Amino acid sequence: MSYKTNTLLLREATSTFFKQQYDASIEAQSVNIKTIPDDIEGDYSIVLFPYLKRFGVTPQDLGDKLAEYIQSQGIQCAKIEVVKGFLNLTFADAFWRNQLAQITEIGEDYAKGDSTGKKVVIEFCSPNTNKPLHLGHIRNILIGWSMSEILAYTGNDVKKVQIINDRGIAICKSILAWQQEGNGETPDSSGVKGDHLVGKYYVMFEKLFKKEYADWQESDAGEATYSENQKENEKKEHFFPRYKNTYFNTHSPIGKKAKELLLAWESGDTEVVGLWQKMNGWVYEGFDETYDALGVSFDKLYYESDTYLLGKDIIAKGLTDGVFYQKEDNSTWVDLEHKGLDQKLVLRSDGTSVYITQDIGTAIERHKDFGFDQMIYVVGNEQDYHFQALFATMDKLEVPYAKNMHHLSYGMVDLPSGKMKSREGTVVDADDLVKEVISVAEDSAKESQFLADFSADEKSEVYRNIGLGALKYFILKVNAKKRMTFDPSQSVDMHGVTAPYIQNAYVRIQAILTKSEDVKNLPENYSWQPQEKKLISLLDHFNVVISHAAQQLDPSLVAHHVYDFAKEYHRFYNDHKILGAESPEAMNARLMLSRQVGLAIKVGMRLLGISMPQRM
RNA sequence: GGUCUUGUAGCUCAACUGGAUAGAGCAGCUGCCUUCUAAGCAGCAGGUUUCAGGUUCGAGUCCUGACAGGAUCACCA
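^ Those are the sequences you sent over. The predicted structure of the assembly is below.
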């Protein structure tokens, strides 16, 4: 890209200044440039403190020389002075004009990165097939989607994948309950979305099991087990919850049936596999609807039923190579203590896989599929340890890309009432939430005079953009790594730091542009107003923000910057007339600026997965 | 208990990676639509950045320790 940001120009100038003046090599990147607080005069400030001791100079002395050099490099300043340890400079109008002219020359994608030639695979969502998607998945999906957009925009070749946990005891529970209680019910016959239908039977299984367990506790067998296995003076209400898993695995008739289903599946029993395919098929149709509603898609899906046996050969090879070791019971382990981790099991004593085994296999499989340079897993932070162990193991296996595997660890979503718990029915369902936000958007938009001549389809598209935008923005504006509180009533708020606020700024710009002539050139001599300079400097800084977001795997940086665009634009819009500006120069300058801000907002929101209405 | 992580206004979040007087929104109060979309703008009020030390020109940010939340420490996924 030919465009150089304000800060980059200053950094480079400062770096070469030190080279020439002191023969010192100071990386342009390391030069500390700050924007100046509003109440102090100036646009940017170069922090001089770090160099004072090193070169034995006073701030004044160094600042004066640097100021002279900067101006000699064609960076036009209206004022440049040393204040304490800062060199504060105010750019001249011509400089602002120049920067904006370069930006508008390139247009919409002025902040786009050049191709890096790097391939990035990003895995996100990765649901189980026994339950519909919920709020936690939504955060995962939005972060994953936005991250892939950002990585693509910064020049990477991005592939979006997910691994679907379609096998195991959970789906067998749904199948069993459906066999026993379902009477052949299907999504078509019931009108229930497939994933919700399968989820219904999962819940039903849990209820059946709960009742069975409760009855058993009262039975002679239950009493006997309690008196045999209780710890010293342990009360029943402590013992039985603790014993629940053991009961499921050893005593429970219904648990036994579920496990028999799993075994039958594993041995390829055609009837069970057929049923499993049928019910998973319902789930996938349901998931696809949800993905469509959210506006996301994937490049490749991996199914655990295909991958769960992967990795065993790698373990076998690693065992002969001495990467792994076996214990007396034939279980296989990897020692990660040199990384401050524990010893980790990679194969059970009966030779079957555990979670990390298939993750090793899948990673290698994916590398064969895509030859990625970087692999990103968007997975909740409860798996931090798992991924540390996985990456350490990959490193020990000496795969060359081990160091480029990252865990984008996001925090749990809490409700104001606390944690979401499926047992207590406090899970926020993804489909319900999407419907809810769109309907709130409709309620607040349907009165709008600006939509009067829109068709019903056009209107509902607007409601969708606003409602979905509000939801997405609400979630993405929070730093992904942090645990966040989700208040359903705030997520559908349409004022303040929200998508509709930002969309409104965009819509205002569109309204002006449709009423104006197409302007192509910036006036030569125009004296920029403070708010206009602020907008140009936000435009200027945009690509720095995007590349930070890509490096740090954090979409919230983009979200905040887009909000700044909107906020600054709303202010500017309130204080200055554009079409009725005081001079033709002012009007042209403001039109060019407005159009570019509109483009930047649209791009920024697209990186968050949010679409813009033309009117609202 | 070990490891990791978080703690900023009543609430939800920022703070350009160590810079100047810690900023937004929500909730509360007050103004501004005959004028480019009021889903907007302007203002008032709200803070000992959990606490105690340390590092330095300078700390919400780095270090140590306490306190308080959370996660994890399965032959579960």
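The longest strand of chain A covers residues 157-164. Chain A has a mean pLDDT of 93.

Shout if you want it in another format.
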